[in-house]
Every structure is written in C-alpha cells, then in structure tokens.
Amino acid sequence: MTVAVVRAADSERDQRRAAAALCAAGLVPGDRLLVSAAASPALLAVVLGALRTGVVPVVLDPALPAAERAALAADADAGLDVGAEPGRLLTGDVQAELADVPLARPVHHTSGTTGRRKGVWSGVLAEDDARALAGEEVGLWELGPTDRHLVLSPLHHSAPLRFAVHTLLAGGEVLLPGPFDAARAAAVIRAARPTTAFCVPTHLQRLLQRDDVDWSSFRRLVHAGAPCPEPVKRAVLAAAPAGSVWEFYGSTEAQFTVCPPELWLARPGSVGRARPGRRVEADARGQLWCAVPRWARFEYWRAPEKTAAAWRGDLVTVGDLGRVDDDGTVWLDGRREDLVVSGGVNVYPAEVEAVLDAHPAVVESAVVGVPDEVWGQRVVAAYVGDANPVELAGWARERLTPAKRPKSLHPVPELPRTPTGKVRRLDLPAVLGL
After folding, report:
1. Which of 9-14's residues contact partners 24+ apart within 8 Å by CB, and which partners?
2. What is the CATH number of the domain that holds 123?
3. Where are the beta strands (DSSP E) in 343-412?
4. pLDDT, greater one: 32 or 349
5. Domain range for residue 392?
6. What is each CA distance from 119 to 45, 60, 158, 306, 426, in whole angstroms?
7. Using one digit for the tens of pLDDT, what is the confidence trace for 380-405?
8. Given a cut of 50, is residue 113 above it in pLDDT?
C-alpha cells in the first residue's frame, strides 16, 4: 500500500520552485494556470505556489472528456496549461519568494447538476482579506502542525483541496492514499492515524460497513457535499471519538454554516448555524441567502447575469431552499430545481428522503418528480436497502401527507452520483426507466 505523505516543509520548497517557474513563464498576479492532474504532492505544491504569488489555478477533473476539457480550457483563457504534469514546474533549482497566505482562491467549476458548469472566480485578494480568508479556515478547524489530514476525495473539488491546502499552511501533513477504496482507507487510518479528514456521506457509509476501521485517531472528521442519512450520522457519531464528527453546509461558491456534533444531536437533521462572520436567512419563497464577509465574495467567470442573480447586496444564494429557526439553526429542504409540484403542492425531496431513510432497512434514498397527466408531477423514489417496497410504502403512508407519498418505490443497487457524492436526481427517471 503506497501512501504519499506531504510534509509542510518539503511542500514549501516545491511551492517556491513552482512560483519561480510560473514567473519565468511570464505569469503575473491574476493570470490563470490550468491544471488537470490526479492528487499528488506536486499538484498541491503547484496550486499553493501559484496561489501564494497571486496566480490563480483553474483546477479541472483529469477524467474530463476531451471536448469538455477543451471548452473549459478555452473559457479559462489561461496563461499556462500544465495538464496532468504539474511536476514539470518543480524541476528547476530557482526558488521564488511567497506570500504567507494564498492571495487568491482556486477556480473550481460548479458540479453541473442543474446545467452548464460555471467557474467560480474571486480574483486576487488584498493582503488583509487574504489573511482573513486563510485565518478563518485554519481557525475554524483548529488546524496545526501536529495534524495529519487524510484526503479521501479528489483534489479537483473545492472542499478536499481547501482542507489539504490549509493543513499545509498550518504546518501539518497531508496523506494521499489515491482514489477512494474503503479497504485501503481503513488500512491507512489504522497505520497512519490521521487526525483530520474531509469526506462525503458515501465515504462514511462504506467505512461503517467494515469492522476494521479504527476511528480513534480523529479529532475532526468533517462531512458535507450531500445530505447525510440520519442512521449513518448516528452510527459515525457512535464510532468516532466524542466531539470529532462535524458537518458544514456550503458549495463550490461559498461556505455558509458549521454544525458541531452537540448541535446536531440537539437538532437532528439540521446543518448547524452560520459560520463566524456570516448570517443566514430565508426569503419569502424559502430560498436561503447568506451574508458573507468581503473576502468571501465571488463572481461567476464571464457570466455577469448569473453573478447578478446570485447576489443581493452582501447576501448570496446558490438556490438552495430551507428555513432558519429563531436561534439561527438552518434546515435544508433541497434545491429549487429539485422541487416537485404535485397537484399544486410543493414537495421537497429532502423531506420525503428523510422519512424513507429512517426506515431500518433503507440505507439511502432519492426522490424525484416525473411528469403526470393528472397531477402535473408525481413523486417517485429510488432506494438502496433490503426494505420491501410494499412495507416501505406503508411506512411512508403513516408519516407523509398524500401529496408527498411516493407513488412508486424502486429498490436499486446504488444511486447515480456526481464525483463529489451528490445524488443526480435528474438522472433517476432514466435509471428507473420512467
């Protein structure tokens, strides 16, 4: 089993080499660097070396089809494209000076579950804003030089890269075991005893199915990216050390809430409260908006109309629906694009899924609306697990009003997902043959 261990001091040296190579190539602050490589020490060094000189890395999935990569590359208008070989920027001996913190955020693209991918651009930050942005992330998770961060998700996604980068900035180590495999991850956890990890609920589900995972080394086991079924959440809370399992709600664009374990146990199913320096509120339509500090602002790259639709003063939305309690606790109902309108009644898939997931023989579920001549749309559910569809229908009937009850229930071996673990509800009708 090969695990790449990235130490802060070694990475710092390579970051300086990358920065020197970028300067020699003529890149200046605000220019884009295109990279589409698998997780490696070189990828982290090049990304950080660029960021700490104000060059903005555009980080693409190395598995993108050629045509899609070409379209995103043309849109990025990058000054340099290193493709799958970031290491070629590390071959020289010249080292450049670096800022203490990243002067920009990498460009990532939204996952494309509801349309064409959009690049998220924050530009080059003023020094005070750059320090505030880095300090917020390091401080929230209390990252430090004794941390060993385990990477379970691809680094071309925003959250995994953010955790790895800030662990190195805090002086810690990053463990890169390669593409996720539950057996390999369990072995790395036993042998390397990581202190932190970011994961999506699918990772937790697969690790919980094993009896050889030693959870005892974690002080922060953070999950996000998709709703976590309540049985999975309770199981990992029981398995991991007390106080270690945290959740957050955010997106490629921005970070909104944080949920420590004691808050989730007091408000099961919530996604916590606003991160420090933020405020979350819901408008009359139930759409969530978050007031963010200056350093967390962004725009959609070369899409001013989409940027304008996302912002209202210092409030930003990514289209999610939910509610906010009087004490600031935030609850998600889903995305407006996922909303099912059946017989004039708004049905939020997340609400129906929570009921189905609570059944002891259901591992996870996904709900979608399909066209119906009478009702406009009818509610359909797919689920993973051993539940009998007839029994599950009775379970739902006891707990949901008629409009919200699935009109058909379909057991499936797995749910269609994006690479970040989000369920692709829009793919469900084709998967189910509807």
Report:
1. 10/41, 11/41, 11/44, 11/45, 11/48, 11/168, 12/98, 12/168, 13/95, 14/41, 14/42, 14/45, 14/46, 14/49, 14/90
2. 3.40.50.12780
3. 345-347, 362-372, 376-385, 408-411
4. 32
5. 339-432
6. 22, 10, 12, 11, 21
7. 999 999 999 999 999 999 998 888 89
8. no
